[in-house]
């Protein structure tokens, strides 16, 4: 009998960002070692850049990854 453990598949947490304060929910998701997917299409362009830059810096400090899935949709993971 094999004693190899299978890692649990964790579903990414999806966030629709509607205001700047929603960023803290994203940070909590990253702290829980979850992949997060953010949709920033419902906010203005200037705020989109600020949110992506902030999360990119946060994930970079943790040696994580950022992937652009589509326009205004990004995935962050550790």
List the helices and strands and how they pair.
Elements: E1 13-16, H1 23-31, E2 36-39, H2 45-61, E3 65-70, E4 73-77
Parallel strand pairs: 1-2
Antiparallel strand pairs: 2-4, 3-4
Helix pairs in contact: 1-2
Overall CATH class: Alpha Beta
Kindly report how far apart the N and C termini lie: 32 Å
Give the mean pLDDT.
87
Shape designation:
globular
According to CATH, the homologous superfamily is SepF-like protein
The major beta sheet can be summarized as: 4 strands, mixed
Extended strand count: 4
**Series of secondary-structure elements, N-terminal to C-terminal:** EHEHEE
Polypeptide structure, described:
The chain has helices at residues 23-31, 45-61; strands at residues 13-16, 36-39, 65-70, 73-77. The mean pLDDT is 87. Strands 1-2-4-3 form a four-stranded mixed β-sheet, with helices on one face. 33% of the residues lie in helices and 24% in strands. The longest helix is centred in the C-terminal third of the chain and has 17 residues, at 45-61. Strand 3 (65-70) and strand 4 form a beta hairpin. It has one domain (13-77): 2-Layer Sandwich (Translation Initiation Factor IF3), CATH 3.30.110.150. The chain has 78 residues and is an alpha+beta fold.
Put the structure in a nutshell:
Helices cover 33% and strands 24% of the residues.
Characteristic terms for this protein:
4-stranded mixed sheet, globular, single chain, alpha+beta, 78 residues, Translation Initiation Factor IF3
